[in-house]
Amino acid sequence: MKTILNLVIAMLLAPLAALHADEHLIEPGDNPQDVMDRAAPGDRIVFQPGLHLHHPGKHRALLYVAKSVEIELKQGATLKLVDNATKLEAAPEITTDQDAGKKLDDMEVGGAFDLSKPSIFTIVTDSEGSDGQPDTFAWGVFHGVDNPQGSTRLAASESKFGETPHRGVPITGDWHVLQHGVKIRFGSKTGHNKGSRWFITYDGPEAYGIRIGHGRQADYIANVRIIGKGTIDMNATHNVQPGFLVKNINACVLIHGRVRDVVVEGITMTDTNRSVMCYGEHSGRFLPGGGVTPGESFDAENITIQHTRTLNPNGAAYLLGHPSFRGQLRNVKCNHNYMETAVTAIEPNFNLDGYEVIGNIIKSGGNAIHCWRHSKNGVIADNLRIHDNTGKPVVVLGAPRGWAQPQPPMMKNNRNHLGESAFK
């Protein structure tokens, strides 16, 4: 009886709350975070037409959201990261779990990176020692941080991404000098399996346009709407980006952790690593192949992305789930959007359970829709791939070695308009 009474009271008070909601207008030059922090739950935040230039602030976002609000970007309003807001940093990030086949994960990085140019080092064990001989490794460096797949415009580099021209280097237990002041060493001389791979990335810090949640907030952030005919521009052209392999990558909109009932509708997103990303978080220690030790799961759910535009000639679009953030993501709809990307446009990914990808128009220099790792219970239908005369499929599925494969989604009428027939 008490529960029913509370529900009735909430229903009666809802129209009154809406009646008293305030509208906050943000003019170019105003600090949007100050406006957001003063706003009450249920208020509207409106970006007026003009150029809104800002540095990353709270939680590395131009605007951080932690309450129920509606954010509108009026037609002609552009929320943009300023030039040179993110610069090359000397701190390395090791990516070790792209495949889960390592017997030993004992490589460490030292030295002092010279900040000459963004770099990704690839390290691969290329032989297993026997008769008292040590294992050996190969290495190479790619001078850039952009994803080399698809039609990405890459910076000049001495070698391609993933190439390891320096081969057969014995693992001695001492430091090995690579390039640009970077050194590595292994804890053990033997016991590595051939083909074990590490990436070391030197890049710029992450930044986000509008961010909802910081990953481990205790309470749910709910009922946030990002709407309008305006633009979010992450200005990748004039900033050093995070590498495409690292944990934190740029996005126009990030939905992270305990967040539910979010709508992203109508806006245009451009010049970024990803347009929209959403995923949960987990406090346990990460294990190879996607597992975690016991801990707390911070899950995201009920996300709708619709009628948006992604114009991203050197990046990707929608990332739904992330292997480096291992909470759950449930009930995501990515429908009726238009996108132009250099690499994968829509990526249902790790720990995504229940999703729709329907009615999208996709121009991509890479994959159109890539179901990746442990995504399941999906529907992919009525998507149209345009401007591709190579016959690429609309939907592909896969996972790195050692990871759970995605569950095949229900697929219908996904077409490459220059292909001879529809793909299922």
Report on this structure.
This protein has 424 residues and is mainly β. The chain has two domains: 290 residues, 3 Solenoid (Pectate Lyase C-like); 110 residues, no CATH class. 6% of the residues lie in helices and 41% in strands. The chain contains two helices and 38 strands. The radius of gyration is 23 Å and the shape is globular. The mean pLDDT is 93.
At the fourth level of CATH, the homologous superfamily of the largest domain is Single-stranded right-handed beta-helix, Pectin lyase-like
Residues in β-strands, percent: 35-45%
Give the termini separation. 50 Å
Based on CA inertia axes, which overall geometry fits? globular
Second CATH tier, the architecture of the largest domain: 3 Solenoid
Strand order of the largest sheet: 1-2-5-16-19-24-27-30-33-36
Number of strands: 38
The residue fraction in helices comes out at under 10%
**Count of domain modules:** 2
Structural class: mainly beta
Look at the structure and give the mean pLDDT.
93
Oligomer: single chain
Rounded Rg? 23 Å
Segments where pLDDT lies below 50 for 5+ residues? none
Give the CATH topology of the largest domain.
Pectate Lyase C-like
Topology, element by element:
Layout: H1 2-19, E1 23-26, H2 32-38, E2 44-47, E3 50-54, E4 61-65, E5 70-73, E6 77-81, E7 93-95, E8 107-111, E9 119-127, E10 136-142, E11 166-170, E12 176-177, E13 182-186, E14 197-202, E15 208-212, E16 221-228, E17 231-233, E18 251-256, E19 259-265, E20 268-270, E21 274-279, E22 281-282, E23 297-298, E24 300-306, E25 309-312, E26 318-320, E27 329-335, E28 338-341, E29 346-348, E30 352-358, E31 361-364, E32 369-372, E33 376-381, E34 384-385, E35 395-398, E36 410-412, E37 414-416, E38 422-423
